[in-house]
Amino acid sequence: MFNSDRPKISIKKLKKSVFEQLLSIVSILLFIGSVVFLVVMWSELPVQVPGHFGITGEVTRYGSRWELVVLLIVGAGLYLLMHVLEKYPHLHNYPIEITESNAEEAYRISRSLIVYIKNIILILFALMMINSMIIALGWGEVIGFVLLPLVFLGTGLPIIRAIVKLMKLNS
């Protein structure tokens, strides 16, 4: 189950690219900014805030403003879980056989995928919180109609890219 027979490579050898480092900084700052925005605006928020959006971005359900805190906790929790998972690429699931000769590059591709996904998730949770708060405060609509495409593109494209790279590595 945990593929303990796979080669183990020091995570220090699998350095993050400059883009990955920049993405991490931007996502963390945006998330912290959304938390600060939530704390500052908490007393101004109505009891009911948008809790769900339809495919076209329209609000389909309202819920307690505490749901924004749930978004915060889930987003941070997913980020932390994936941050830990990123450190153990030999435990990841691969569509190819991992050998001594391809392990380092396969692990780099997989670790990079986890970095992209965890940061995109953090950005999406921050944007969902901000969007719900802006609508609840009556300031307009910001990203409701583009949120679903952002989810699919932001998570789907890095996965496809990683699979293609891994398949090329296997050939």
Automatic annotation (TrEMBL):
<feature type="transmembrane region" description="Helical">
    <location>
        <begin position="21"/>
        <end position="42"/>
    </location>
</feature>
<dbReference type="GO" id="GO:0009636">
    <property type="term" value="P:response to toxic substance"/>
</dbReference>
<feature type="transmembrane region" description="Helical">
    <location>
        <begin position="113"/>
        <end position="136"/>
    </location>
</feature>
<keyword id="KW-0472">Membrane</keyword>
<protein>
    <recommendedName>
        <fullName>DUF1648 domain-containing protein</fullName>
    </recommendedName>
</protein>
<feature type="transmembrane region" description="Helical">
    <location>
        <begin position="142"/>
        <end position="164"/>
    </location>
</feature>
<keyword id="KW-1133">Transmembrane helix</keyword>
<dbReference type="InterPro" id="IPR012867">
    <property type="entry name" value="DUF1648"/>
</dbReference>
<feature type="domain" description="DUF1648">
    <location>
        <begin position="29"/>
        <end position="72"/>
    </location>
</feature>
<dbReference type="Pfam" id="PF07853">
    <property type="entry name" value="DUF1648"/>
</dbReference>
<keyword id="KW-0812">Transmembrane</keyword>
<feature type="transmembrane region" description="Helical">
    <location>
        <begin position="62"/>
        <end position="82"/>
    </location>
</feature>
